[in-house]
Amino acid sequence: MAVSLNPYISTFDEGFDAEKSSQYRMAIQFALGGLSFALFDTTTHRVIGLECYQTDDADSLETFQLLERALDAKKLNHSDFHSVLCIFDNRLNTLVPSELFDEAIMSNYLDFTSQIPENHTICADHLKSVSCHNVFAQHRTLKNKFLEKWSNAETIHSSTVFIEGAMQTDTQGVFVNVRNRDFDMLIKKEGNLLFYNNFKFHTKEDFAYFLLFAMEQNHVSGLEVPVTFSGLILPASDIMELCGRYVEDIRLVEETPDKMLDGVPFQYYYIHYQALR
User: Fold this and answer.
1) What is residue 237's DSSP assignment?
2) What is the rounded radius of gyration, in angstroms, for the C-alpha atoms of the chain?
3) What's the CA gap between 7 and 57, in Å, rounded?
4) Which of 190, 216, 212 is nearest to 199 (CA)?
5) How many other C-beta atoms can be found within 10 angstroms of the C-beta atom of residue 198?
6) 4 pLDDT exceeds 60?
């Protein structure tokens, strides 16, 4: 079965009202293995809804149809929103310093790192906090579907949200955003972006190796700087237990109690929250 018709997370604040959709910002994330959407109330400045589904192919039109059915169940499929943001969460991206960026040759940057599938188009996000452009590929037909449905929709890459969120905090050190089988990692030192990359892993040992190797190569010690985790991770996980043997200060992203959804760990929807706030 390509998609699951039942969400593995579905939680909505008691204040949620489909009739008030015009005051809601919506972020929809298409990730490897998952589709999710979150709603942010612009009047209360709270995330008031989150729903997550498991999928085999996040870029398929079948997944877009699943999204429409999910919104229809909440009487939101034909609603007008304050804004709609589509987050493409794939490994088809690379950072280019702004002084070297040329929009006319965007596809060339990705040719060095990725094989771009057919029916994908190349886009770029400007990262203001680090003077870079994040060049990425997004599914052309999926993007067009979004624009047909919501003419004011915008697109962004998940790593843009992750990097900007980390750079805007006062915390220094290492930041990690975990998915099912890969993770983004960045190192921030003295307010500057020192390192960013994405790693694919199969075991907890893979994960720890890539994390610690990247730290060592960038002369960052686990005895001196914290490692902050977000994404699909729990404090009791094997990954955090193993990494904690080598990192003195290992933590989850700082929770914001007044913004939290009942029953869902904040780190699970951290990217949604950062994109919508």
Assistant:
1) S
2) 19
3) 16
4) 212
5) 18
6) no
